[in-house]
């Protein structure tokens, strides 16, 4: 049985700005902005800050390309 994470896109992106606690705007390599939130694992022990310009690994559902989950920082 496959998990929902198996079919997701996993691009690297750059944080553009913080929108709220655990919510960020990130830019994909093609420049498209996506609203991104911390994964459950990162939200359990959230970083104090993710500065603008930080590289992150996103997980994006192929069904909603405007929202993403931040899977890894750095």
Automatic annotation (TrEMBL):
The lineage of its organism: Bacteria, Pseudomonadati, Verrucomicrobiota, Verrucomicrobiia, Verrucomicrobiales. The keyword Transmembrane does not apply. This is S1-like domain-containing protein. It comes from Luteolibacter flavescens. Residues 1-70 form the S1-like domain. Keywords: Initiation factor, Protein biosynthesis.
């Amino acid at each position: 049985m496959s998990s929902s994470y198996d079919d997701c896109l996993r691009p690297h992106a750059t944080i553009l700005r913080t929108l709220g606690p655990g919510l960020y705007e990130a830019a994909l390599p093609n420049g498209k902005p996506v609203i991104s939130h911390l994964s459950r694992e990162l939200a359990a022990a959230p970083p104090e800050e993710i500065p603008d310009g930080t590289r992150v690994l996103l997980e994006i559902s192929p069904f909603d390309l405007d929202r993403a989950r931040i899977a890894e920082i750095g």
